């Protein structure tokens, strides 16, 4: 039976940032959604992935569960009506297309900045959560490790990950453009999660070096500051630092911290001032632009900034896609072999029944040593007999002819059963 892997995806390609943040799931929400899917559906091999650019659910089921999954996402996010978000979700029900989509997403072929290295770490975390929730079976385990191997091959054999064309580096480039002509511009980095830390790392390669880091957990800010040559401030100083900075970059989810227009309206601000929001949900009020000398940019403004590294990566896309094609072909062979396993096991069990029946007839009058010898000989013969069709089935998988052999094997079982009857 054909394995039925599917995907439900909402991404920056069709969904505006307001919709993406409405359905964005943090770690706890992703884990909760896994539990809900397990409880309310028959889906297996489930992977829940949510980043600033996409919210996706990969799963195996005979049925298209997209409507149920959208409802469960809405339930987790705390809203009932789904008609506003449903049009932005795409359901991929073709098995091969869903597998390819997960390959493309994981390797960065679907990222806003092509080849973004952060996405693979996010996929690995999603995979770990699926494994922890017992929602990853042999199919998903094998698929993920095939993807990781393909990514390693892309890194080693192409220029797809060369250079620094990531969201983090694109942010640094944007800051350089915005502050061109300023003398020693002051940049405040709020939050030291994965993206925030990467932004600070990339500032080490920039001419902009007056970087201030604020984080609720001060020792994390201090460690990152010491590593990157920045300055760490206590969280209690964050609002004062916002006023002093020329550029404010936030990677803290809006549900945890929010810079509103009301909070800064009437305050003495150093202008011109630029706010760059890398958060999901957003943590910077777009209405801040109503204040004089203030400009707000978000993750969508970072998209595909023109860099030499990005050009190299784009040139490498055909080679990476070929790596995916080869990896998918190898994975498809394994999938077919997995489908053969029950038939082979049934074949082996049937032969074992015959062996046991025949041994029961002739071992009665033999001594213990003779019985052991006959047992060993017949078991060895059985294993060699089973090995031949197993090898042929594997070869048939490589030729794409496994279905015919599988049907033939099933027919042989039926004939034997009818003969016994």
Automatic annotation (TrEMBL):
* EC top class, as a word: oxidoreductase
Domain spans labelled Glutamyl-tRNA reductase N-terminal: 9-158
Q: Which domain of life is it from?
A: Bacteria
Where do the annotations place NADP(+) binding? 191-196
Q: Which InterPro entries match?
A: 4pyrrol_synth_GluRdtase, 4pyrrol_synth_GluRdtase_dimer, 4pyrrol_synth_GluRdtase_N, GluRdtase_dimer_dom_sf, GluRdtase_N_sf, NAD(P)-bd_dom_sf, Shikm_DH/Glu-tRNA_Rdtase
Q: Which GO terms describe its molecular function?
A: glutamyl-tRNA reductase activity
Q: Where is the Quinate/shikimate 5-dehydrogenase/glutamyl-tRNA reductase domain?
A: 173-303
Record: residues binding substrate: 51-54, 111, 116-118, 122
Residue ranges of the Tetrapyrrole biosynthesis glutamyl-tRNA reductase dimerisation domain? 320-415
Which residues are tagged with the site Important for activity? 101
**The protein's Enzyme Commission number:** 1.2.1.70
Pathway(s) of this molecule: Porphyrin-containing compound metabolism; protoporphyrin-IX biosynthesis; 5-aminolevulinate from L-glutamyl-tRNA(Glu): step 1/2
List the catalytic residues. 52 (nucleophile)
Q: Name one Pfam family in it.
A: Shikimate_DH
The similarity comment for this entry is: Belongs to the glutamyl-tRNA reductase family.
Q: How does it assemble?
A: Homodimer.
NCBIfam families assigned:
hemA
What name is this protein filed under? Glutamyl-tRNA reductase
The top of its lineage is: Bacteria, Pseudomonadati, Bacteroidota, Cytophagia, Cytophagales
């Amino acid at each position: 039976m054909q394995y039925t892997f599917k995907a439900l995806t909402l991404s920056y390609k069709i969904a505006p940032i307001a919709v993406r943040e409405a359905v964005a799931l943090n770690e706890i929400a992703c884990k909760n959604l896994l539990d809900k899917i397990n409880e309310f559906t028959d889906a297996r091999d489930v992977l829940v992935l949510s980043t600033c650019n996409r919210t996706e659910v990969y799963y195996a089921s005979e049925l298209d569960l997209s409507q149920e999954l959208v409802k469960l996402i809405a339930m987790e996010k705390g809203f009932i009506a789904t008609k506003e978000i449903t049009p932005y979700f795409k359901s991929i029900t073709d098995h091969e297309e869903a597998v390819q989509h997960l390959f493309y997403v994981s390797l960065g072929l679907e990222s806003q900045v092509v080849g973004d290295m952060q996405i693979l770490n996010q996929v690995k975390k999603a995979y770990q959560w699926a494994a922890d929730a017992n929602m990853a079976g042999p199919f998903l385990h094998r698929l993920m490790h095939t993807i990781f191997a393909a990514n390693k091959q892309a890194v080693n054999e192409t220029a797809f990950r060369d250079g620094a064309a990531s969201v983090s580096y694109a942010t640094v480039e944007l800051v350089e453009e915005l502050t061109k002509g300023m003398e020693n511009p002051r940049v405040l980095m709020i939050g030291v999660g994965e993206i925030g830390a990467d932004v600070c790392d990339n500032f080490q390669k920039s001419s902009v070096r007056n970087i201030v880091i604020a984080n609720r957990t001060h020792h994390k800010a201090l460690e990152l500051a010491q590593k990157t040559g920045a300055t760490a401030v206590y969280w209690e100083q964050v609002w004062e630092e916002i006023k002093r900075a020329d550029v404010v970059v936030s990677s803290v989810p809006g549900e945890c911290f929010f810079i509103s227009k009301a909070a800064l309206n009437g305050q003495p601000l150093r202008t011109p001032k630029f706010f760059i929001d890398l958060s999901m949900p957003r943590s910077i009020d777009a209405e801040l632009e109503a204040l004089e000398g203030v400009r707000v940019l978000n993750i969508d403004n970072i998209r595909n900034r023109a860099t030499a590294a990005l050009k190299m990566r784009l040139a490498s896309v055909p080679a990476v896609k070929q790596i995916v094609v080869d990896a998918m072909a190898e994975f498809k062979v394994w999938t077919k072999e997995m489908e053969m396993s029950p038939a082979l096991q049934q074949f082996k069990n049937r032969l074992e029944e015959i062996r046991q029946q025949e041994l029961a007839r002739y071992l009665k009058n033999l001594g213990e040593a003779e019985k052991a010898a006959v047992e060993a000989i017949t078991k060895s013969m059985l294993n060699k007999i089973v090995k031949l069709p197993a090898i042929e089935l594997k070869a048939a998988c490589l030729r794409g002819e496994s279905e015919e052999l599988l049907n033939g094997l099933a027919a042989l079982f039926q004939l034997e059963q009818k003969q016994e009857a």
